[in-house]
Amino acid sequence: MTNTKFRWGIIGLGSIAGQFATGLQSVPDAELAAVASRTQEKADAFGEKFGAAKRYGSYRELAADPDIDAVYIATPHPMHAEDSILCLEAGKAVLTEKPFTINAAQARATIDAARANNVFLMEAMWTRFFPVMVKVRELIASQAIGDLRIVQADFGFRAGVNPEGRLFNPALGGGALLDVGSYCVSLASMLLGAPVQTTGVAHIGETGIDEQAAMLLRYSEGQIAVLSTAVRTNTPQEVYLIGTEGKIHIPSPWWKPSKLTLSRDGQETETLDLPYEGNGYNYQAVEVAECVRAGKTQSSVMPQDETLRIMETMDALRAQWGLKYPMEN
């Protein structure tokens, strides 16, 4: 790269794109260079708000821009695969918002496109890059709580039912699992790997999506993950990591964490304050830039094969619930 700034483009300009654009403002060497929407008016308004010089009325125009180092895909869930592949085939590094795709088949096709074009691709699981989560991985690796045996994670909130909105519309990939349950499944994956047994129950609401769900995952050495998620129920939004010699507690909101509590058998409980900078979205942007500048095509913190396994786990859960989206028929 000849430019000292790492130049970002954003495709899809809803609220999550605004969060990411805000996060970029906390990264000294990041520049929001271009944005794209399906309407020129929206691109112009977003570009004006966040200082993007180039404002495109189509995604294809941004993908073809030679002066973009990476593209953040912030479109609705069902468009993630198509929009990511568009950019990957144009040779762009891509950061795709979670859930990575609707299902594992789409995830596999997207990853195949990245590998065929030898370009960087990562799922935007922003929670993994917070200082608290970096510390959690260090503590688990050093066996600070002995062998990790149980992961308990919960993420639910109560939203008003809007059949046309993204949370409740099957055509938009609605439901608790893909929207916020994916955080829980990803956390369990990060710490325990791929499950050997996947069991779940869900309440399917009047619009045909999972309004709340509970999941139980078993792993090869007997570890278990107990996970819950909801879009119609306010839940504690906490994490407990329970080991043979202690436990780690991440208080609410664990998905945007700033501290953890470490309790080791026979020792006083420690509270570790690990504040984050910016709004938290900046950390994943830094990871992408560092990987791309180092010539890497994926991140070791959020590798592509793991993203695929997470989608397979969520596919297995939805199959048990009889939840299939219209675009999957």
Structural key phrases:
33% helix; alpha/beta; 329 residues; 6-stranded parallel beta sheet; Dihydrodipicolinate Reductase, domain 2; 2 domains
Write the layout of secondary structure elements.
Elements: E1 6-11, H1 15-24, E2 30-36, H2 40-50, E3 54-56, H3 59-64, E4 70-73, H4 80-89, E5 93-97, H5 104-116, E6 121-124, H6 131-141, E7 148-156, H7 176-192, E8 197-204, E9 210-218, E10 224-230, E11 239-243, E12 246-250, E13 259-264, E14 270-273, H8 282-293, H9 304-321
Parallel strand pairs: 1-2, 1-4, 2-3, 4-5, 5-6, 7-10
Antiparallel strand pairs: 7-11, 8-9, 9-10, 11-12, 12-13, 13-14
Say which CATH homologous superfamily of the largest domain is assigned: Dihydrodipicolinate Reductase, domain 2
Gyration radius, rounded? 20 Å
Order of helices and strands: EHEHEHEHEHEHEHEEEEEEEHH
Q: Low-confidence stretches at least 5 residues in length (pLDDT < 50)?
A: none
Number of helices: 9
* N- to C-terminal distance: 43 Å
Structural class: alpha/beta
Main sheet makeup: 8 strands, mixed
Domain GFO/IDH/MocA-like oxidoreductase: 134-248
Organism: Capsulimonas corticalis
Domain Gfo/Idh/MocA-like oxidoreductase N-terminal: 6-122
Keywords: Oxidoreductase
Describe this structure in words.
The termini are far apart. The chain is 33% helix and 25% strand. The longest helix is centred in the C-terminal third of the chain and has 18 residues, at 304-321. It has 329 residues and is of the alpha/beta class. The mean pLDDT is 97. An eight-stranded mixed sheet has the order 8-9-10-7-11-12-13-14, covered by helices on one side. Strands 3-2-1-4-5-6 form a six-stranded parallel sheet, sandwiched between helices. The protein folds into two domains: 6-125 and 281-298, NAD(P)-binding Rossmann-like Domain (Rossmann fold); 131-275 and 310-328, Dihydrodipicolinate Reductase, domain 2 (2-Layer Sandwich). Helix 5 (104-116) runs antiparallel to helix 9 and helix 7 crosses helix 9 (304-321). It has nine helices and 14 strands. The chain has helices spanning 15-24, 40-50, 59-64, 80-89, 104-116, 131-141, 176-192, 282-293, 304-321, and strands at residues 6-11, 30-36, 54-56, 70-73, 93-97, 121-124, 148-156, 197-204, 210-218, 224-230, 239-243, 246-250, 259-264, 270-273.
